[in-house]
Amino acid sequence: MRAELLAVGDELLYGDIVNGNAAWLGRQLADVGVTVTTSTVVGDDIDMIATAIRVVLDRADVVIMTGGLGPTQDDLTREGIAAAAGVGLRRDDFLESMLRRRFRDMGRGDGGRRVPQMNYRQADLPEGAQPLPNGTGTAPGIRMEIGTGVVYAMPGVPFEMNGMFTASVLPDILRRAGQPAVVVHRVLRTAGMWESAVAEALADEVDRLARIGNPRIAFLASGGQTRVRITARARDRAEAEMLIAPVETAARTALGAGVYGGADDSLEGVVLGLLVQRSATLAVAESITGGLLAGRLTDVPGASAAFRGGIVSYATEVKASALGVDEGLLAAEGAVSSRTAAAMAAGVRSRLGATYGLATTGVAGPQPQEDKPVGTLHIGLAGPDGTVTRSVRLPGDRPRIRTYAVVSALDLVRRMLAGLPNSEMTTTGDGAP
Length: 433
Prior knowledge:
The protein has 15 helices and 18 strands. With about 425 residues, it is of the alpha/beta class. The N and C termini lie far apart (about 65 Å).
């Protein structure tokens, strides 16, 4: 079965609201084996909505719409569906009575606050359509067969849409599709590798699977990490797992130290787990990341078992006063250098009594600092066996650079604790250089 998503609303076109509904629906449909081929956004215009529906039904079995079902003049999805089907609208007496009862229960209407008459537009349906119950809001959804296809329209409010889709739309889609293939996903999470490097490492396996058609590999990059999703379709879960197993083995072999976990793992959680296994603790000294690193670590329940705390040494003089970084070093090399990062790491380790000290310093932008270009990042990691540093150049704007810096720092700790290689790591002697 082929499905397309169609979102309605000027606010989506203008960027006032991000279409998160499409992402959520795409995941739900993929999990049950329904192929989503296109996701489209149209504005609040009856003719545009009707045209989009007709175009989609020429190439798909199902149109799943969100938005435009409210009571105001710019909520035109009902009219658009009716125009696409070449029918008129009818007022559904049962829906209107339900709306009146709901407004009364809310203290509006029948002696309460006046209910504007336009609210009852939500009881209008295209001729031949069936309503979909809305358990959390006032706007019913719509199901309507047009030709050989079917249109489902749901409110744009996410929690209303989620409930309606789960309770009414998805079961109807599965009924129409017959027994769909079982779809199983396996996710590998990577760090310390750009998406292009991950894709290059798996190029031969992707080409092999393209010739077979099942399983398939997708690359999902976000926040400085790349997820590798392996998807198999089969008659049952056991067969799908059997198809995935050799692909997962090949991917883990090709990616090597870049893989840190599976779908339910987080990089910070893996790092804390490795520390707990060693009965070790970690403290952080942050400049460029400004507390983001400590925030990621403390997002993990039970982080106190391994995380001692952090010092945000943003100003150069604080690196000296709070962390004990040598003023001569700061004068000679500045706040942004690998030797400064190493000294910060050694300083926070000593100050907070941790097994390991981790430090970040760099230039997030938008302007260069100390003649260092935007994206410069130096990480220091001090421990019982000495101090290591990592220096990289990160792409993107200020928020992305800071996010990538956190990932780079956590990945350095992960690789060191797990005894994994890191070509960008350089080692110094004990303590700060």
